[in-house]
Specification:
Elements: H1 3-12, E1 19-23, H2 27-30, H3 39-43, E2 52-55, H4 57-63, E3 72-75, E4 77-78, E5 91-92, H5 96-101, E6 106-111, H6 118-133, E7 139-143, H7 154-167, E8 171-175, H8 181-186, E9 192-195, H9 203-215, E10 220-222, H10 225-228, H11 233-246, H12 250-264
Parallel strand pairs: 1-2, 1-10, 2-3, 3-6, 6-7, 7-8, 8-9, 9-10
Antiparallel strand pairs: 4-5
Helix pairs in contact: 9-11, 9-12, 11-12
């Protein structure tokens, strides 16, 4: 692995081998998402606790101070919406020149294994990897849940994660599953970060799956709605960070969350 690739990955994955990525890219297909209507305001109090931000070039340009030293994972797939026919019909919408110009530390795109557009999304991933490897930019594959993956079972998550890694993704983002998640991690030769999905009913539910996923081999998380859609986002991200980087249990994280929340109140 050449110096540039190693350097970019070292900015994302911390010295302890762990990572907390904060995605705020939901507007690329959802529009003004709840609690993300003004991305700059959402990001500001949370940035210091994240290891990297995941976002589109439009939000980066308009909502993030260019003086920031926080690494950026640029979402480069899109051209679909929630009112369109199929979210899986994505294209790559950002050039390698733009990725370099905006100083991204990595890029991300979705792959839809098991969907009607499986071949298109995996081919897009292959082309993106080819372009980014030439410039030492790591690609994170986001394993979206296609038609065949609605149950989010380990065998399907392991399938999509392994395929993304085989094509050349340097990091894979996939969903957590309670049963046999370790099999998903063991079958993937590159680091895995856990996706959050829809907002959980309770904070403890989030802390439980983050802790369990870390115990089963994930290097960290890529959580958005389960942080910035909560009543106390700073308390939430601090507690999750404690699980990832300080080895807190779910119970200890919940206690920290309550302490920070009460101070805020």
């Amino acid at each position: 692995m050449e110096w540039g690739m190693k350097n970019r990955l070292s900015r994302l994955i911390q010295k302890d081998g762990k990572a907390l990525f904060l995605p705020v890219d939901h507007g690329y297909f959802q529009g003004p998402t709840h609690c993300l209507e003004k991305p700059g305001e959402t990001i500001k109090p949370l940035m210091q606790y994240a290891d990297a931000l995941m976002l589109t070039r439009g939000v980066l340009r308009n909502c993030v101070d260019p003086a920031t030293e926080k690494p950026v994972i640029m979402r480069v797939s899109g051209a679909v919406s929630v009112v369109g026919e199929d979210l899986a019909n994505e294209s790559v919408v950002t050039s390698i020149q733009e990725i370099i110009r905006l100083n991204a530390s990595a890029v991300s795109m979705s792959v839809f294994v098991g969907s009607k557009y499986e071949n298109k999304s995996l081919t897009n991933l292959s082309k993106l990897v080819d372009e980014c490897e030439d410039y030492g930019v790591p690609v994170m594959a986001v394993c979206a849940v296609g038609k065949e993956l609605e149950k989010r079972e380990a065998r399907y998550l392991a399938l999509s994660a392994r395929i993304a890694a085989e094509i050349g993704a340097r990091v894979v983002k996939t969903y957590y599953c309670k049963e046999n998640f370790e099999k998903v991690v063991e079958g993937c030769p590159v680091p895995i970060v856990i996706a959050g999905g829809p907002k959980a009913e309770t904070q403890r539910e989030v802390f439980d799956f983050v802790y369990d996923g870390m115990q089963k081999g994930a290097i960290g998380v890529n959580l958005g709605r389960n942080i910035w859609q909560t009543e106390y986002p700073v308390a939430s991200i601090r507690a999750i960070r404690a699980i990832i980087h300080e080895g807190y249990t779910a119970k200890e994280a919940e206690d920290l969350y309550n302490q920070v929340r009460n101070l805020k109140a």
